[in-house]
Amino acid sequence: MAREAYVHGNTARKQAVRRQADIHPIREERRRANNSVHYAGSSVFMLIASFALMLGIVFYFISLQTSVTNKREQYSEMQSQYEALKRSNDLYEERILSKVDMEEIARVAREELGMHLAGEGQIIRYSGQLDDYVTQFTDIPTE
User: Fold this and answer.
1) I need a surface site. Which of 7, 46, 82, 142 has the fewest CB within 10 A?
2) Are the C-beta atoms of residues 16 and 3 closer than 8 Å to each other?
3) Per-residue pLDDT tens for 75-131?
4) Contact at 8 Å (CB) between 31 and 39?
5) Structure pTM?
6) Alpha-carbon Rg for the chain in angstroms
7) Structural domain boundaries in the chain
8) What are the strands, taking DSSP E only, across the chain?
9) What is the C-alpha to C-alpha distance for residues 61 and 50, in angstroms, rounded to an integer?
10) Three-state SS for 116?
């Protein structure tokens, strides 16, 4: 059998057609193995790269989740500290207000400072348009 693929000369002729039977089975198997090795290598590389990317994303997500958990714990701790300080301040305020004797204040105002309660006609009421403050445009009469 002549396996001449190319014909020498100045005119182009058809190549000899190789029949399936002419291909040796071992060579065909090697050719397929060589082709699949290149394909498998790129597939393995892509698989490793995507696995590394996925692993990186998972670790990033876990670190974010840990950070959120830590922030929640810090918030709870600060909230409990705030409540404790608020209770403490309320107790101090109550203790201070319980020590204030309004009768003693009135006695000191009358006896030592010469103050007295306002009589009828001394109280002048002003009505403002807003509930939270009154604007004074003129002096209050001294009568």
Assistant:
1) 142
2) yes
3) 999 999 999 999 999 999 999 888 888 888 889 999 999 888 888 878 777 665 666
4) no
5) 0.41
6) 50
7) 22-111
8) none
9) 16
10) coil
What's the pLDDT band for 58 if we cut at 50, 70, 90?
very high
CB 110 within 8 A of CB 116: yes
What is the pLDDT of the chain when averaged over all its residues? 80
**Sign of the dihedral through C-alpha 33, 36, 38, 42:** negative
Count other C-beta atoms under 10 Å from residue 57's C-beta.
10
Task: Please give the distance of CA 112 from its chain centroid, rounded to a whole number.
Answer: 63
Residue 86: count of CB within 10 angstroms of its CB: 10
Spatial CB neighbours of 6, under 8 Å, sequence gap ≥ 6: 15
Cα separation, 65 vs 68, in Å, equals 5
CA atoms within 13 A on the CB side of 74: 6
Can you say how many angstroms the Cα of residue 119 is from the centroid of all Cα atoms in its chain? 64
SS3 9: coil
Cα(37)–Cα(97) distance, integer angstroms: 89
